[in-house]
Structures are given as structure tokens and as C-alpha cells.
Amino acid sequence: MRGNKLICPVCGLPLSKTERTYRCENNHSYDIAKKGYVNLAMSQSSSKKRHGDDKLMVTARRDFLDKGYYAPLREAVTEAAAEFTNGSAVIVDAGCGEGYYTAAIAERLPDADIYGIDISKDALSFAAKRSKELTLTVASASAIPVQSGCTDAIVSIFAPIFPEEAARLLSDNGVIIRAVPLEEHLFGLKEAIYEKAYKNPPDDFMLDGFEIVSRKELRCTLTLDNNKDIEALFMMTPYYYKTSRQDQERLLERDHLETEAAFGVIVYKKQGSTV
Fold first, then answer.
1. Which CATH number do you get for residue 221?
2. Residue 2 in domain
3. Whole-number Å distance between alpha carbons of 37 and 118
């Protein structure tokens, strides 16, 4: 880690790192877990509440992504990070999950200072195994414990964006790099599950206080030839927890599936900035 931009979630003062502990001047301290992340979530006391993706969902996503099905999206996001930042940038992946995209950015930009933020401890445990170059933090994307105005790029892959928080984090010329599902994304998967499938609703993906400076669309057909990959794709989507057992079984009996993947990669700047 080339620098430290983390702040205390209690008082907002900068955190200093000594060995395996972060501490602010008010003596609030946060230990780095053995699994490689520090918990800076204000809700950490509610241990019974499910926070973020569970281990089952994270494992499914890791197994699916490691097969390379979403490699074109990873390449597009990595290229955007390289194009819109310099080599020593501060980059925050807000909702980094198990680090598939975050680690790729770190590999492409080895001098960048990269922070992975997620509310799922299970996801961050996997991210720590992908790359030792990441600073991984349990926190919400709505309250990111990073210093104001220091971030050159916020990356958001299928994750919620909070425009006011993003504006606080970004430098004057900072950008948001966002990946979003387009209308036909995974429509073949939906057709295999539901009797009547619907495309995603259309969206202009505008953000308050920001304007779009770049927009690319990626489309490809995914061919899954085994039940394990089909199940992994299903389990890494929100549909898994919203689908009846009967509809789940209709999909999980299959050993072949073709579905379109359709992504938008959108880069935003603050309104009035000179990016």
C-alpha cells in the first residue's frame, strides 16, 4: 500500500496503520482481520443481521467468473480505469465483492492505491486471496470511510451508487466507472426459469450532479455446457433468492444454457469538471 486514505467511521479523522491495527487521534482502533480486511462498518455490532452476499453466493460468483465468462467486462472496466486515471491514482471499488475486477485493475495499474469496499466479510475474504495489493474494508457504499476529495476513480460493478457520497470522495477531475446490466442481460436465463420472462426495464443511468463522458455497450452469448456453471450463474444473481423452489428446479435440471450477456460501461464526471 502506497498511502492510506482511510478515515475513522466514528469521528471522521484519518486512520494511521501500525502493523495490523488502524487508529485515529481519538484512539478509536480497528484491527485487521486474519482474512485480510478491516471492519469499518458502523453496523458491525448487529451480528445477527445478514450483511451483503453470503458465502454461498460469493463462492458461486467466484467459480463462475474464474471460468472467464465475464472476461470482456473485466477488460472493459480495466481499460476505462487505465484511460481515465494516471498510474498513481487512488481508486475505490465500491461494492468490490470477491475482487474479480478489483484485482485486475491492481494488476494493470500496479502503482495505484486501490481500496475495495464491501459489506460482505465473506466477499472480502475471497478478495484478499485474489490480490495482496488491495486495501479491503467492510463498509457500506453509502458511507465509504475514505478521505474527502482524494479519489481519482470510483468503480461500481452492478452495485448501488450514492451520488452525494461519490461527489464527496472524488477529486475535482475524478470519475465514476460504472458497469450496469442492459435490458436483455441474462434474458435466456430468465426464460429458462420463468414461464413468462421479462427484460430489464430501460434506464438512462443518469446520476444527479454528474454527466456521462463515455458509454460503451458489450454484448455476447454465453454458452454453458454443464449444470455446475448454470447453477453458479443462477446463484450469483438476485433471482436465486426470489425464485420458487419449483422454478429453481426447472433450471437446475438443465445441462445446457445459452443466454445473452449485455453490459453497459459508463464513465461519469462531476458536472462542470474538465475531465
1. 3.40.50.150
2. no
3. 10
